[in-house]
Each structure stands twice: as C-alpha cells, then as structure tokens.
Amino acid sequence: MSSAAGRCRKQFSFAGSVQVFITTSPFMPDAPFYSNAMTIALPSPTQDTRMLVNAALWGLKQIYRPNYQYVKAGVMLSELVPMEGVQTDLFSQVAASPKSNALMTVSYTHLVVSFFKFSNLAGRNPLTGVATVPSGGGGVSELNIR
After folding, report:
1. Domain ranges of the chain
2. Which contiguous run of DSSP H or E holds residue 45?
3. What pLDDT band is residue 4 in, cutting at 50, 70 and 90?
4. What pTM value is reported for the model?
C-alpha cells in the first residue's frame, strides 16, 4: 500500500477508492474455495498512506473468513484524480494538517539515513557490520553495505 500511495504522490494524483481482495486456490480439491473483494469509497480522494491502509484493513476485516488457506490477496487504488481536480466537502479533513503532507513526502532512504545519523551521534550503531553511513563532508549521499 505504501508503494501505491507513493506512486500517487509522484504522479500528483489522489485515490478516491480502495479495493481489497482475497482468494483461496481453486485447484485444491480437499480445501474449500473462497474468493471475495470489496471496494471502499473514501470520503474524499487522498494520497495519505495512513488513510489508505486504514481503509484497506477495514475492507479486509469485512471479507476475511477464518479457517481458509488464502493464496492471494491484493489492494488496488481506483478513481484516481489529479491534484488540481480534487473536490472536498465542507467536513473533509484532507488539508487539515500540513504536518501530514510533510510526513508523506519523507522518503524511505531519508528515514534510513536519519536513523544511522542518530545512531552514530549517540555513539552506537545497533546494526554494526550490516550497514554504515559514509561520513564525508557535507552530508550523506548513499548507504554503504558491508
């Protein structure tokens, strides 16, 4: 879900609905077959990973049945609209927090680099021997994996 929301942000688009699906194998004769999907309409289009994950989890809870051997599950974003075309209602909280927008723009690499900078400042590296951050002047450009 995180990568799908990230693609939306790169394309400057928002998702209006989330579809989740699960299925068991139709080729297992001794196991019962079950397949289901659900589309969750969002109150207003979003690219916020947290809102998309919450919608997907809610939908999954609605269609999940215990005691089945699931072989496939997935999530799809639909009703994509460009950033300029997002319509909200009076009660929408899409632009409620500028911190939310800042949080969604943080990249995974930035988080990893920040983690290692903090660890090095604290005088310890909890993943010693796995990865280190180069200590060149002027910032960190990549992670060196040993």
Report:
1. 2-91, 106-146
2. strand 35-46
3. confident
4. 0.62
Q: Which two tokens stand for residue 99?
A: 């911190």
Tell me which residue of 69, 112, 71, 94 sits closest to 15, measured CA to CA. 94
Beta carbons of 84 and 125 less than 8 angstroms apart: no
If we measure between CA atoms, which residue out of 68, 64, 42 comes closest to residue 53?
A: 42
Q: How many CA atoms lie within 13 A of 19 on its CB side?
A: 9
Lookup: tokens for 95: 């632009």
First to last CA, the chain: 30
Q: What whole-number distance in Å separates Cα of residue 141 and Cα of residue 89? A: 42
Check residue 2 and give its pLDDT.
74
What crossing angle do the helices spanning 2-10 and 98-105 adopt, rounded to 10°? 100
CATH of domain 2-91: 3.30.1490.100
